Recover the amino acids of this structure.
């Protein structure tokens, strides 16, 4: 997946992700909200067939938005690894 940063300052980041579907985008949005430093997190896809998810993440003062996104992605990656291992055990 390719990530393009559209806007960034200390407490806000806007980025789009090429190759991401609603499934993963919703999971990332949910994971961002588990971070108490995140004030707002959301995304939209401008066109259902060719649009790319565009995220907006805002954090409380003193927390870098990019850091919150990076940490959420790491937690989500761990969750997906765990799901994959559990699925292999079921075979």
């Amino acid at each position: 997946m390719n990530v393009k940063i559209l806007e960034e300052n200390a407490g806000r980041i806007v980025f789009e992700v090429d190759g991401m579907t609603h499934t993963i985008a919703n999971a990332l949005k949910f994971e961002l909200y588990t971070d108490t430093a995140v004030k707002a997190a959301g995304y939209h896809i401008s066109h259902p067939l060719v649009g790319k998810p565009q995220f907006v993440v805002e954090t409380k003062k003193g927390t870098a938005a990019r850091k919150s996104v990076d940490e959420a992605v790491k937690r989500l990656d761990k969750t997906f690894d765990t799901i994959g291992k559990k699925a292999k055990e079921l075979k």
Notes: The first strand starts at residue 2 and ends at 9.
